[in-house]
Amino acid sequence: MAVRATRFIVWGVALLVVAALVYALQPQPLQANIVSIGIGPLRVTLEEEGETRVRDRFMVSAPLAGRVLRIGLEPGDPVTANETILATFLPVDPTLLDARTRAEVEARVRAAEAASGRAEVERGRARTELEFAELDLERYQHLDASALISKEQLDSAQLRASIAADLLRSTEFAVSNARYELEVAQASLLQARGLRDGDTITLRSPIDGVVLQRLRQSEAIVPAGEPLMEIADPSQLEIVSDYLSTDAVRIKPGQPVLIEQWGGDRSLAGLVRRVEPYGFTKVSALGVEEQRVNVIIDFEDIREAWEALGDGYRVEVRVIIWEEADVPKVPTSSLFREGDAWAVYRVNLDTAVLTRVEIGQRNGLEAQIIAGLAAGDRVIAYPSDAIADGVTVVARE
What we know:
alpha+beta; conserved putative lor/sdh protein from methanococcus maripaludis s2 fold; Elongation Factor Tu (Ef-tu), domain 3; Helix Hairpins; 3 domains; 5 helices; elongated
């Protein structure tokens, strides 16, 4: 009996050893990051650095050769159209000019008068176009309230009204510019006809705004055309961002923009106003030549939200080129190329199954699933080289 009991013990130990060896030699499940396919919002943006700039800047120059008196205005000082004196001149040796030069100056005055009149006409036409665009927008808003038009039609009407308003502001600036050029030409004509000793010429601001830069402060003799200061209206601020040409073709006027990293505590809203039709070559920080295209962006937030920004400030912009509220999506980290198609490892009963998928829009984190997966399916994020079709996997804790 003792011998038989000993034999049973030996056989039992041997079976346990064999079972342990079989278990040790079996492949162990691989740990993997497993995520579920969800339905939610997806936004595709194009990001780039940008710089603020005033839409219409005005370079004030000496209308004629002479002594400019000391300029007391400082950068940031407000100026009022036709009131604020920007500079005062004492012409140097004003003498009568010959008949030919005097005729040229008079012709320049007539050309400036014609340009001023033409600018007035353009402003009137722009004002009429704005009134029509606003009436058209009002009609579309009534139709939208009754669900008779699509959202795209309402957005187009809003964009036309915004463009018409921008055009009116531009023509108003053109009128101010033409009037200033007329004053300069008239000052030159005054010099051509001769001034009495001690007569001065004052240069007044053509627009309401602030002084951006003061290029000359002290009293000095300056030639005609010498830049003195730069003025602009800071409320007419825009953003220019140079995008790669391959990205610029995907950007359209009217697309929304997120303005970030500008120094405030929240993102600002913007709108693409124009994609310039020409590109230029720019050398990147890595020394690579790139084709870039300027994209012009307007602020959509109220003035108080971004009034701390000035001309030449750095910002980051994200143009939203596509956005949907409810789409099936998968992390881009789970996607990889399988031949000419995209694929993922779908987890079916703890087994990795190679599955080809068709994707739509995508950003840096998520991609839209068109076909191949359904909401609730589980996939492996960050699949390693050890993962293959048919491999047993377990979720990593």
